[in-house]
Design goal:
It is a single chain. This protein has 112 residues and is mostly helical. The chain has one domain. Helix content is 62%, strand content 4%. It is elongated. Helix 1 crosses helix 2, helix 1 runs antiparallel to helix 4 and helix 3 crosses helix 5.
């Protein structure tokens, strides 16, 4: 994994698209997503390259918002935000990338 640029897999792209569609359909009082969250959703949905710094931010987002994926209301803001960041697929992908990247860094630095 000797690169620091990654491309979101199909499942991540689809979750981000689902989040954007939900937000689009939501009444104004139920629209979710910060400027950063919307930028992330569009980045993921378009399959734009993602840096390791962004992967770290994704891991951090998912750690802080654990439980938001379970919203039952289709327009639940927490659920929308979770999807905008790539949903469960995004969490799994970002965690796997970061874990691999850390191991690679440790190996390069003689710690692995």
């Amino acid at each position: 994994m000797s690169t620091n640029i990654f491309y979101p897999p199909k499942a991540v792209r689809e979750e981000a698209k689902k989040g954007l569609a939900l937000r689009e359909k939501a009444p104004p009082s139920k629209k979710a997503g910060t400027r950063v969250g919307l930028a992330r959703a569009n980045q993921l949905a378009r399959e734009d390259p993602v840096s390791i710094e962004t992967i770290k931010r994704m891991v951090s987002f998912f750690a802080r918002h654990e439980g938001n994926e379970e919203g039952e209301d289709p327009f639940d803001r927490g659920r929308q935000a979770w999807l905008l960041w790539g949903g469960n697929a995004g969490r799994t992908w970002a965690n796997a990338i970061l874990n691999s990247w850390k191991k690679e860094q440790e190996s390069k630095n003689g710690y692995g």
